[in-house]
């Protein structure tokens, strides 16, 4: 989600200061306090006027008639998208801590993820959520193309664990007209041999990103067929299955004033502990799918589709294997979050797990 509001430099400074004050204190703030605590280089009257404009724009609001202002979800969105950059210091800190604390050669990947979640929770002060990886290490042992009837071919796949899968491939009408008389058993065997020579020993993740634009001359006529075959072969890669979510830091974040209402806490705990199947798609959704330039996804307040999370912010990023997203790292906390640190922590942890997974796979 993006908020389209044009702000002057002064209004941006006032919004930045208001958000920073509220993050630090959880208390509404007025113009006099901002003038005293932040070097804004203009008078309380100017600050008050700027706050009035920001309130009319829906970026600030008054929780009580006599109180100062606090940021709205839209105010936080402007703050995240336009007014801050992730903390390089915090990013380096988590990188060093992960590298010093986690021993790849001594742990399996699940143990490493659990330890990483604990480190992430401790550094951020929020709930850390890390999904177990999708199965991407399964490797192709053998495949066979078998003609079933004109226009239909059975693809049989055997993986390194001797698991067998079969897919019935339907050719389009145009493909049937082109190959019905050509793709016979003998030629399918030749094509099977070619594919085995190219794909044997590769993981499904690797196969998913292969480029078939340059084929041996004798197989150019099968380019469209191979494209469809590859699509069928890697379908499990493109249809993620929910994996367990490792959760750390619940007790710490629930001490925040935003979670003082018992019913709200119960709803959030029920979601985290009993409804992970609902939570998983939100965490695993790749930020690149929403915005190719953004590696870290930030969902603020009402941007979250699940009701128990609508007073929270979820910061998440995927970690990868063979350039394919296989799991996700997230931080869940109140919207009154120190976003500079949270974004840097999530991004650095996702990068570390991507490298770690390549070493233990």
TrEMBL record:
Residues 111-343 form the Heat-inducible transcription repressor HrcA C-terminal domain. GO terms for biological process: negative regulation of DNA-templated transcription. Keywords: Repressor, Stress response, Transcription, Transcription regulation. GO terms for molecular function: DNA binding. The keyword Transcription regulation applies. It comes from the Bacteria. Negative regulator of class I heat shock genes (grpE-dnaK-dnaJ and groELS operons). Prevents heat-shock induction of these operons. NCBIfam families: hrcA. Belongs to the HrcA family. This is Heat-inducible transcription repressor HrcA. It comes from Limnofasciculus baicalensis BBK-W-15. The gene is hrcA.
């Amino acid at each position: 989600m993006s908020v389209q509001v044009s702000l002057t430099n002064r209004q941006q400074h006032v919004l930045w200061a208001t958000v920073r004050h509220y993050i630090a204190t959880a208390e509404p703030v007025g113009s006099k306090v901002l003038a005293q605590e932040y070097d804004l280089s203009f008078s309380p009257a100017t600050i008050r006027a700027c706050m009035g404009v920001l309130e009319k724009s829906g970026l600030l609001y008054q929780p009580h008639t006599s109180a100062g202002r606090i940021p709205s979800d839209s105010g936080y969105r402007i703050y995240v998208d336009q007014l801050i950059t992730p903390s390089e210091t915090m990013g380096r800190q988590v990188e060093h801590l992960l590298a010093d604390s986690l021993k790849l050669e001594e742990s399996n990947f699940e143990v490493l993820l659990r330890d990483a979640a604990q480190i992430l929770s401790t550094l951020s002060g929020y709930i850390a959520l890390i999904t177990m990886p999708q199965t991407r290490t399964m490797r192709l042992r053998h495949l066979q193309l078998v003609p079933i009837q004109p226009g239909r071919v059975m693809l049989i796949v055997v993986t390194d664990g001797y698991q067998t899968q079969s897919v019935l491939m339907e050719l389009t009408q145009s493909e049937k007209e082109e190959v019905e008389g050509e793709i016979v058993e003998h030629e399918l065997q030749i094509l099977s041999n070619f594919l085995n020579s190219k794909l044997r020993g590769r993981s499904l993740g690797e196969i998913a990103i292969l480029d078939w634009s340059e084929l041996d001359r004798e197989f150019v006529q099968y380019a469209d067929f191979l494209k469809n075959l590859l699509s069928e072969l890697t379908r499990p890669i493109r249809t993620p299955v929910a994996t367990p979510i490792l959760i750390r830091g619940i007790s710490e974040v629930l001490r925040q004033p935003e979670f003082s209402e018992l019913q709200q806490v119960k709803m959030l705990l029920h979601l985290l502990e009993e409804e992970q199947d609902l939570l998983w798609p939100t965490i695993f959704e790749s930020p690149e799918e929403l915005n190719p330039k953004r590696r870290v996804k930030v969902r603020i307040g009402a941007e979250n589709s699940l009701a128990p999370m609508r007073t929270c912010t979820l910061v998440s990023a995927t970690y990868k294997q063979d350039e394919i997203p296989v799991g996700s790292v997230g931080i869940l906390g109140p919207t009154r979050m120190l976003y500079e640190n949270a974004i840097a922590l999530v991004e650095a942890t996702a990068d570390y797990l991507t490298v770690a997974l390549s070493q233990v796979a």
